Amino acid sequence: MLPRHSQSRPASSFVKIVEVGPRDGLQNEQRPISPAIKAELINRLARAGMRNIEVGSFVSPKWVPQMAGTSEVLSLIEPVANASYSVLVPNQKGLDDVLNLLSRNSSPPPITEIAVFTSATDAFSKANTNATVAESLARLAPVVRVALDAGLRVRGYVSVIITCPYSGRVDPRRVREVARELLKMGCYEVSLGDTTGAGTPASVRAVLEEVTKDISVSQLAGHFHDTNGTALANIKTALDFGLRAFDASVGGLGGCPYSPGATGNVATEDVVYALMGEDSYGDVGEPYSDSPVVQGPAWDVGPVSLPLLADTGSWISSVLTRETTSRAGKALLARKERERRLSESAQAKL
Ligand SMILES: CC(C)(COP(=O)([O-])OP(=O)([O-])OC[C@H]1O[C@@H](n2cnc3c(N)ncnc32)[C@H](O)[C@@H]1OP(=O)([O-])[O-])[C@@H](O)C(=O)NCCC(=O)NCCSC(=O)C[C@@](C)(O)CC(=O)[O-]
Questions:
Q1: How far apart are CA 59 and CA 74, in angstroms?
Q2: Alpha-carbon gap, residue 97 to 13, rounded angstroms
Q3: How many CB atoms lie within 10 A of CB 177?
Q4: How far apart are CA 77 and CA 61, in angstroms?
Q5: Locate the Pyruvate carboxyltransferase domain: which residues (predicted)?
Q6: 88, 59 contact by CB (below 8 A)
Q7: Confidence class for position 259, pLDDT limits 50, 70, 90
Q8: Atom 36 of ligand 1 has which residue's CA nearest to it?
Q9: pTM (2 d.p.)
């Protein structure tokens, strides 16, 4: 059955969601997580319909020990058609490791894209990569060139677009300058990272007003951590601005090791629900008849199944011995449980 609003959607309503849970979501976990669990997470996300997944990083294991087994994770991925799998790379060594794996004759990993990252402040850049912003840009330029020559797509990140945990409030002009440098190098898109999750609709609007002075919204993505519960409001602000790409992390996993106190990314399930409403429930029950929902046309987020995503968020959270922080995930699982009980009691009455 077609989702209720699919026929009335304008063609421009597609919103790309980049699932960053396996990388951004897990990199800060203190206990080692096995490559098999990480690969299982990635495979479940792909089966749930996520078509852009950042699966790990080739960074120094001394800096981020949790990402050390990424090459083994890659060997366990069961690639899904039309899915793009990417990895984070900080320098030439990281790219060389990726290219070595890709040049293998037997079963090269399904990587089609890398992501490079820098920051809007020197203080954060030094803490995260042992280099100032200028040094990191100089380091990344040849990396991007070699990756593009090898046929990989390259995405860029600018961290701390609102507030830096080390140097405070960030000047939006700096965000624009750094994003422009990444695009000049050849990144097809720059993801603007509210690393600390300090952003509000007003501060996000201020950054976007500045950044879009000379960068097209089609080259920008939003990456909002949900530390203060404002991530969805920030996504709405960015959507109104014309951005159509957002990063999210299943179950709301994550946090950056160099942004103390910041919580995970906005939960993927919450973004899917916010963009699609009850259309995203699929076969999990009919809309509540006592609350007629008046909806405008939903956004198109691709072939995503919210029920499968919610199961995935709940599964990985239980592996990490915690609860999912996704509100939509919890609500949907509660709804499923209610449907199950109703059907059991209906069966019992027969
Ligand atoms: C950039 C470096 C490497 C500089 O770190 P460094 O210590 O200056 O590097 P180095 O070149 O001096 O090398 C030191 C050691 O690391 C090794 N090394 C060097 N490079 C690699 C590599 N690629 N892979 C594996 N090993 C590597 C290298 O071989 C050497 O090993 P040793 O000789 O001592 O045994 C380091 O600072 C680093 O890896 N930083 C990454 C930190 C990180 O991953 N942070 C989290 C991701 S960013 C983020 O989460 C924000 C984002 C993207 O989500 C958006 C947002 O929310 O804002």
A1: 15
A2: 37
A3: 17
A4: 21
A5: 15-288
A6: yes
A7: confident
A8: 129
A9: 0.93
